[in-house]
Structure formats: structure tokens, C-alpha cells
Specification:
Order of helices and strands: HHHHEHEHHEHEHEEHEHE
CATH topology of one domain: TIM Barrel
Low-confidence stretches: 1-71
CATH architecture of one domain: Alpha-Beta Barrel
Radius of gyration: 18 Å
Mean pLDDT: 81
CATH superfamily of one domain: Glycoside hydrolase/deacetylase
Bound molecules: zinc ion
Helix content: 25-40%
Largest sheet: 6 strands, parallel
Structural class: alpha/beta
Number of helices: 11
Distance between the termini: 37 Å
Number of strands: 8
Length: 276
């Protein structure tokens, strides 16, 4: 790996997360052991009225806005969801940090070839120049989650900044995908109480992952494939990336492990909220 690649903001921060060991790898950072949902989130105080949604041909489901009935039913968790439960040989593939025109269309194409749905945790600032890709995700039944606007380390931000990062991203997802996101993932897997509370206020469940492909280290396509196949199991949520660096290995790996998983009898799908 080239030295300049090691010095990027993303890798510097991820290095810090990795130093925390298994907890960091599982997408948890400095959280208590309690995993039970706490009190329901209060509706967002002073939340602006929902903007009317432009009619769109790709909108598949009724709009669910924050402040609506679903938002008040989202519980505040103390740790993110790591896997699905009670779903047999089912797995979830997730792709973070995009969309990126260089890689996301390839990933969409592979998913289409196998008639598989996946999750894309997008950053708002990436969506702005790639609105058509969000429309394509909606048309093809993929689930789009909120991965903040600019991919900051939330644990270093004020509550107001965290809210802004999350809210702006939900707004641009609504505008381009056709509905507000129901899932949120903290950058670097670095969650804190504000992130859980604000996510719940915005009607989103926090989803981490079970298996990290470590594709951001560009370890080679074969290594990424091995990470997925060795980590495969019922309810497993796989983390990969479609942006944030050279993701050509991630693109090639998917073409290899996706048919393998299907051959092995796995059903690749997107989670319903009662499955977590
Ligand atoms: Zn990320």
C-alpha cells in the first residue's frame, strides 16, 4: 500500500477504530453492555413540516416522514444492530460511502444480474452529483440508508452538528430516492448516545455489520471474497464499500462471492425492521 494512501483522513481514523480491537471490528465503540431498547424517542421538537414530494415514477412505497407515526415507534437503542435474527440462511450485503459513478453502477449491474437486493448507506454529499443512481436504487428495490452528509467522526461533533449531518442526508435521500431512510449507519462504526437518539427521532434504526470485508484496505479481490465466504452464516450483515477510494477490488469480489453465496443456498435480501 502506498504511503499517501495511509495518510488519508479515512484510514487515519479507521486505524484508531481498529486499535479498539474486536469491539471496533463489530462496529461498536465505547458503548455500555445494555442492548435493550430504551424509551421511545420523543418527536423531533420543532421539526419542519414535511416538504411535499414531487411525483416520481420510481417511488415504490408510501412516504414515511420524520415526525410521522413511524418515527414515534422507533426506539432509542444503546448499541447498533449487528445481524438479523430468525431468518434462516439469509444474508444482507451493504455498501457504504457512495454512490460513486466509478463503482456503484457496476455493483448495481451485478446485483441486477442475480436479481438480488442490497443496502446502500450513502453520504449526502455523494448523492448530490449522483441523483440518478439513487433513482436507480429505488427502481430496483434496493434499500438506501443514511451514512451522514460528509462522513465525519460523530463522536467529535456537537449534537447540533450530528443532527444537521443526519437530517440533510435524510432530506436528499427523500428527494432522490423517493422516501426517507429507515436505517442509519455511523461513519467508522463510531456511535454515541446522540447518534442513537437523533437517529430514532428521524425514524431510523441503527445498523452496523457482522462481517467487515476490510475492502477499504485494498487487500486483493481474493482476500475480500474469502472474508465474505468465511464469514457467511444465517443473519450475517456484510460491510463493503462502493466509494471512498479505489473500489475496483470490491466490484470484482462481488462478482465472485455473490454467485457462490447463492450456490451455497443463501438468500440475499434486505432486512425488515422486525427482523433485527
Ligand atoms: Zn463509511
Amino acid at each position: 500500500m502506498k504511503k499517501d494512501q495511509l495518510l488519508t483522513r479515512r484510514r487515519a481514523l479507521l486505524g484508531g477504530v481498529a486499535a479498539l480491537g474486536a469491539a471496533g471490528a463489530a462496529g461498536l465503540l465505547g458503548l455500555g453492555a445494555g442492548g435493550d431498547p430504551a424509551a421511545p424517542a420523543a418527536p423531533a421538537a420543532g421539526a419542519p413540516a414535511r416538504r411535499p414530494l414531487k411525483p416520481s415514477t420510481y417511488r415504490l412505497q408510501p412516504l414515511v416522514g420524520h415526525g410521522g407515526p413511524n418515527a414515534s415507534r422507533t426506539l432509542v437503542r444503546r448499541e447498533p444492530v449487528l445481524r438479523m435474527t430468525g431468518v434462516g440462511r439469509t444474508m444482507v450485503l451493504t455498501f457504504d460511502d457512495g454512490p460513486d459513478r466509478r463503482y456503484t453502477p457496476d455493483i448495481l449491474s451485478t446485483l441486477r444480474a442475480y436479481d438480488v437486493r442490497a443496502m446502500f448507506f450513502v453520504c449526502g454529499e455523494m448523492v448530490v452529483d449522483n441523483k440518478d443512481l439513487l433513482a436507480e436504487m429505488a427502481e430496483e428495490g434496493h434499500v438506501v440508508g443514511n451514512h451522514t452528509w460528509s462522513h465525519p467522526l460523530l463522536t467529535e461533533l456537537s449534537r447540533g452538528r450530528i443532527r444537521s449531518e443526519m437530517e440533510r442526508t435524510s432530506d436528499v435521500i427523500e428527494e432522490t430516492y423517493g422516501e426517507r431512510p429507515r436505517w442509519f449507519r455511523a461513519p467508522y462504526g463510531a456511535w454515541n448516545r446522540s447518534a442513537f437518539q437523533l437517529g430514532a427521532e428521524l425514524g431510523m434504526e441503527p445498523l452496523a455489520w457482522t462481517v467487515d470485508t476490510l475492502d477499504w484496505t485494498e487487500p486483493g479481490t481474493r482476500t475480500i471474497v474469502d472474508q465474505v465466504e468465511n464469514g457467511a452464516g444465517p443473519g450475517v450483515v456484510v460491510l463493503s464499500h462502493d466509494a471512498g477510494g479505489d473500489r475496483s477490488q470490491s466490484v470484482r469480489a462481488l462478482r465472485d462471492y455473490l454467485p457462490q453465496l447463492l450456490d451455497d443456498g443463501y438468500h440475499i435480501t434486505v432486512p425488515r425492521r422486525h427482523q433485527v
